[in-house]
C-alpha cells in the first residue's frame, strides 16, 4: 500500500497511532531516498512530543532490522551474548566485561560504536592501541568468535541502514533523548547483530540521556520486552551515571584502567560492579557463577589473556601494553587540588565529560579527530575524604588548558562536610 508522508506526519502530530503497514512503508521509503530528511525530521519531532505505543515501537524496531542485513551466528556453538550501554562518561565496561565473560567459555560477539559529545566510544578507546582494526567482514567476525571466543568490532554498514540514517538526523534535530527512538535504535542493532542473549546497561543520571530512574525504568522495560518478543533472552541493569565510571576519562587512559583491572588491580567497588554484570551475562548463557568465582578470573590472568588474544586477532600490537599503561604524554598537564577539607559529595559526569571532550578526548561533531592521549585522571571519587590542597584530578591535553576549562572542572566538583555514597547498579529489569 502507498501512503503520503505528509498525512502520516499529521497523524502522529495529532496523537494518532501507526499500524505496521504504515511504519514499514515509512522506513522502506526513507532508506530508498523517496522520503526526504526534512519530512523524517518532522516525524521524529512529532514522535518526540506524542510518543509511540508498545505495538508501534515493536513494529518500528523490526522494520529497522529488516532495512539491512541480519547476521547469522548459528555457526558459533553455544549461547552468544552481547552487551550494550546507553552511554556515559568513563564507561570502559566493555573492555573488561567482554573478555571476562569470554574467559568462562561463553562466546561474546559484540559490535560497538564511537563516542560523540560527552559520551565516550569503545571503538575510539580500542583504536588507541597501535594497529588495532575495528573492521571485520561478517565471515571474519564469526571466525574470530569461533577461534578465540570474542570479537569487538565497529557497527557494520550493512546492518540496520535505517538506524544509521535516523540517528544522524536525530543528532542534529534534538530528537535523540526520546524513549521510542532510543529503544528502537538500540534493539534493532542488537537483534540484527545476531546474538542469542543481550545485557542492556541503561545509564541514568547527570551524564546519561535518561535523567530520572523512572524514565530509565521505562526505557529498560521497553527494550527488554522488545528483545524477548523476538526470542532473545534480555536483561537490563539500570546503572548510576551521576559521576564518571572509574577513575579514567579519555581513550588511552581508559585502556590503561581496563588493563589494570584485567590484571587484578582496581578498586573493590569497580571490580564488584564488573563482576555483577558478568554474573548476569553468564547466567543468560546458562552458566551460573558466584561473584568470587568471577573475580578469580580477573586475578588469575584468564580474562586478560582473552583481551590480549582479541587485540592480536584484530591486528593490535600486544607489546604496546607497556606504553599503554605508562603516564599520559601531553604537552599540557594541570593538577586540580581541593580548595578545602571535606568529602566529595558530587562529581558531575556531564561537566567532566564535556571537559574531556574540550581537552581533545572526544568529538563535538562526527568529523572531529580524537587525541588518544588527552583526558582526565581522577584521584578522588564521591564519598572520598579530601584535605585542603589534596590532588583531586589531573587534566591532560595537547591544547592549552585555559583558566576557563579549569573553572569548568571545579564547577563539576562539590565538597561538603557530609559524606555520601553512591550505588552503581540501581535496579535489574528482567
Describe the protein in words.
Homodimer. This protein is of the alpha/beta class and 430 residues long. It has three domains: 5-51, Transferase, Pyrimidine Nucleoside Phosphorylase, Chain C (Transferase, Pyrimidine Nucleoside Phosphorylase, Chain A, domain 3); 81-157 and 167-322, Pyrimidine Nucleoside Phosphorylase, Chain A, domain 2 (3-Layer(aba) Sandwich); 332-416, Aldehyde Oxidoreductase, domain 3, CATH 3.90.1170. The protein is built from 17 helices and 13 strands. Helix 5 (93-102) packs parallel to helix 11, helix 5 crosses helix 14 (302-313) and helix 16 (349-361) packs antiparallel against helix 17. The chain is globular and about 70 Å long.
Question: Care to give the gist of this entry?
Answer:
The chain is of the alpha/beta class and 430 residues long.
Amino acid at each position: 500500500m502507498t501512503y503520503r508522508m505528509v498525512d502520516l506526519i499529521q497523524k502522529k502530530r495529532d496523537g494518532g497511532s501507526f499500524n505496521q503497514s504504515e511504519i514499514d512503508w515509512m522506513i522502506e521509503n526513507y532508506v530508498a531516498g523517496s522520503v526526504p530528511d526534512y519530512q523524517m525530521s518532522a516525524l521524529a519531532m512529532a514522535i518526540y512530543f506524542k510518543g509511540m505505543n508498545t505495538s508501534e515501537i515493536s513494529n518500528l524496531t523490526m522494520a529497522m532490522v529488516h532495512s539491512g542485513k541480519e547476521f547469522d551466528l548459528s555457526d558459533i556453538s553455544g549461547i552468544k551474548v552481547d552487551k550494550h550501554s546507553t552511554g556515559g562518561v568513563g564507561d570502559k565496561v566493555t573492555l573488561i566485561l567482554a573478555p571476562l565473560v569470554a574467559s568462562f567459555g561463553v562466546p561474546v560477539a559484540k559490535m560497538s560504536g564511537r563516542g560523540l559529545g560527552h559520551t565516550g566510544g569503545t571503538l575510539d578507546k580500542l583504536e588507541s592501541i597501535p594497529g588495532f582494526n575495528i573492521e571485520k567482514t561478517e565471515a571474519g567476525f564469526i571466525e574470530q568468535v569461533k577461534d578465540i571466543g570474542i570479537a569487538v568490532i565497529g557497527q557494520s554498514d550493512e546492518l540496520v541502514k535505517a538506524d544509521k540514517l535516523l540517528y544522524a538526523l536525530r543528532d542534529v534535530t534534538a530528537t535523540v533523548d526520546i524513549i521510542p527512538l532510543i529503544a528502537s535504535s538500540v534493539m534493532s542493532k542488537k537483534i540484527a547483530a545476531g546474538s542469542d542473549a543481550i545485557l542492556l546497561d541503561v545509564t541514568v543520571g547527570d551524564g546519561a540521556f535518561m535523567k530520572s530512574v523512572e524514565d530509565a525504568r521505562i526505557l529498560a522495560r521497553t527494550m527488554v520486552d522488545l528483545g524477548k518478543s523476538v526470542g532473545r533472552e534480555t536483561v537490563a541493569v539500570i546503572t548510576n551515571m551521576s559521576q564518571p565510571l572509574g577513575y579514567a576519562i579519555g581513550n588511552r587512559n581508559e585502556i590503561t584502567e581496563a588493563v589494570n583491572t584485567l590484571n587484578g588491580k582496581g578498586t573493590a567497588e569497580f571490580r564488584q560492579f564488573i563482576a555483577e554484570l558478568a554474573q548476569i551475562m553468564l547466567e543468560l548463557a546458562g552458566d551460573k557463577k558466584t561473584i568470587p568465582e568471577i573475580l578469580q578470573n580477573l586475578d588469575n590472568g584468564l580474562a586478560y589473556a582473552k583481551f590480549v588474544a582479541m587485540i592480536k586477532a584484530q591486528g593490535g600490537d600486544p607489546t604496546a601494553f607497556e606504553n599503554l599503561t605508562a603516564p599520559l604524554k601531553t604537552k599540557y598537564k594541570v593538577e586540580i587540588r581541593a580548595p578545602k577539607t571535606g568529602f566529595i559529595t558530587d562529581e558531575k559526569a556531564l561537566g567532566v565529560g564535556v571537559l574531556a571532550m574540550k581537552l581533545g578526548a572526544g568529538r563535538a561533531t562526527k568529523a572531529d579527530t580524537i587525541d588518544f592521549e588527552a583526558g582526565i585522571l581522577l584521584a578522588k571519587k564521591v564519598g572520598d575524604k579530601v584535605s585542603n590542597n589534596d590532588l583531586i584530578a589531573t587534566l591532560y591535553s595537547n591544547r592549552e588548558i585555559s583558566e576557563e576549562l579549569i573553572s569548568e572542572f571545579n564547577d563539576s566538583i562539590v565538597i561538603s562536610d557530609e559524606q555520601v555514597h553512591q550505588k552503581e547498579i540501581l535496579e535489574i529489569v528482567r
